[in-house]
Design brief:
The chain is of the alpha/beta class. The protein has 14 helices and 10 strands. A hairpin with a 5-residue loop joins strand 9 and strand 10.
Length: about 425
């Protein structure tokens, strides 16, 4: 068995096939096994070759999983890939060395334990849990998510890989029993109803209209001509009115100008809300003093405009993308009030931040509105899909329905079980 799995062309082919099936074809259930070929291939190698091949596999995984960031920012993509590569390399190499030393059945916990430490270390970086919360590929296990959290499910995925690796490598029946036990736990999780989700499903609903304009103009073109974007969203909102929604939501930066300083645009949007007799939640910005990378500082904001109300409710992003230096964070996580309900808002990178959803759960919000742009990832289906996985994950974990409006990405409504409706 060991000589078979030391054939690197075969192992590399199997590993590449698994990664392609996961990230290109969306067969996300394969995350439960995709690390197995790597550990089988490297287990019996001398440590120098082990490290060399571990680095190669780590780099290949990182490039295949994260190449879609390239259109956003070349250096950001390189930096994230390198950080991800180092993290995976440390996980694989440390796990292999520890498994070799222990050499008993208890070694199945080595991979989950080491990954937990890597996950903790990664959470201390500005990117937090971005790309390492692998539970995003398995949001259907709602009961488990709400019992052990998304981090717990991620560690369970690693444990599943570890058990299967140990079964194939050591050929012991106890590992077969553990595989069956894990399968039963996962199956039971699919059958058990979620009390949190059930409570929210019985709550009074909000009828939401999400508009997606698919504007692919450059940022500078949009900022220099915000009226062009506004005209498109006016037309789409008039079409949406026909379904008589309670609220119409525009995506992040739908109006790329400071409405507090552009009275003409502000008056047009207020007039539109009055004429439609429907509240509008729009993505916009707020200009600040100073520049970074040759661009003006700004706040990424959302504005709730309601008919016959002069004052707009405002949300300022508290966790903009760390690599986007011109965008400055707000000071306080705010909610908005709508139809006597408390609504949470997340903008762009905040969709990936579990802490945002946890805080909104504490505040007992009725629903979360997510506004995103995603125009940089419009040439990559993988980028658009991954950007849409996190809202599903956290909607399921915290049992909160979510409406997601994007400019070019996946516009969707997600129920408290993480299902796209």
């Amino acid at each position: 068995m060991r000589s078979i799995f030391s054939r690197f062309p075969l192992i590399t082919l199997i590993f590449s096939l698994l990664i392609a099936l996961i990230f290109i074809h969306g067969l996300y259930f394969l995350v439960w096994v995709f690390l197995v070929p790597v550990f089988l291939a490297l287990m019996d190698l001398p440590w120098k070759k082990q490290w060399m091949y571990a680095l190669s596999y780590s780099l290949a995984l990182s490039v295949l999983a994260l190449y879609w960031i390239w259109p956003y920012n070349t250096w950001a993509c390189i930096g994230i890939i390198l950080l991800h590569t180092v993290s995976i390399f440390c996980f694989v190499s440390i796990s292999l060395r520890a498994i070799k030393r222990i050499k008993n059945n208890a070694s199945i916990v080595i991979m989950p334990l080491v990954f937990s430490l890597i996950l903790l270390s990664y959470s201390l970086t500005p990117l937090s849990n971005f790309v390492f919360n692998w539970a995003m590929f398995q949001p259907q296990f709602v009961a488990l998510l709400q019992m052990i959290t998304s981090y717990g499910l991620t560690i369970l995925i690693i444990l599943g890989n570890s058990i299967i690796f140990h079964f194939i490598y050591y050929k012991k029946n106890i590992f077969a029993f553990e595989i069956i036990l894990l399968a039963l736990v996962l199956g039971f999780s699919l059958l058990v109803p979620s009390p949190i989700a059930s409570n929210n499903e019985n709550a009074e609903t909000i009828k939401v209209a999400l508009v997606q304009a698919n504007i692919v103009d450059s940022w500078h073109d949009r900022v220099n001509n915000p009226g062009k974007s506004l005209a498109i969203y006016e037309r789409l909102s008039e079409d949406a009115q026909k379904d008589n929604p309670d609220i119409i939501i525009w995506p992040e930066y739908a109006v790329p100008d400071d409405l507090s300083k552009n009275k003409g645009l502000s008056d047009k949007i207020i007039k539109l809300s009055d004429e439609l007799n429907i509240p509008l939640l729009i993505g916009s910005l707020e200009w600040l003093n100073g520049t970074s990378w040759g661009e003006r500082h700004k706040h990424d904001i959302a504005l709730l405009i309601e008919p016959d109300k002069e004052k707009m409710q405002k949300y300022i992003s508290v966790k903009p993308l760390p690599l986007e230096r011109p965008t400055k964070p707000g000071n306080n996580l705010a909610t908005v009030s709508f139809q006597d309900k408390t609504i949470g808002i997340v903008l762009c990178f905040e969709e990936t931040q579990r802490s945002m959803f946890r805080e909104y759960k504490k505040r007992n919000v009725s629903m979360i509105f997510a506004l995103s742009n995603d125009v940089h990832f419009s040439q990559s289906r993988l980028g658009l899909e991954i950007a849409g996985l996190y809202p599903r994950l956290y909607a399921a974990e915290f049992g909160i329905p979510l409406a997601r409006a994007t400019n070019t990405g996946l516009t969707q409504i997600i129920d408290p079980r993480g299902n796209v409706t």
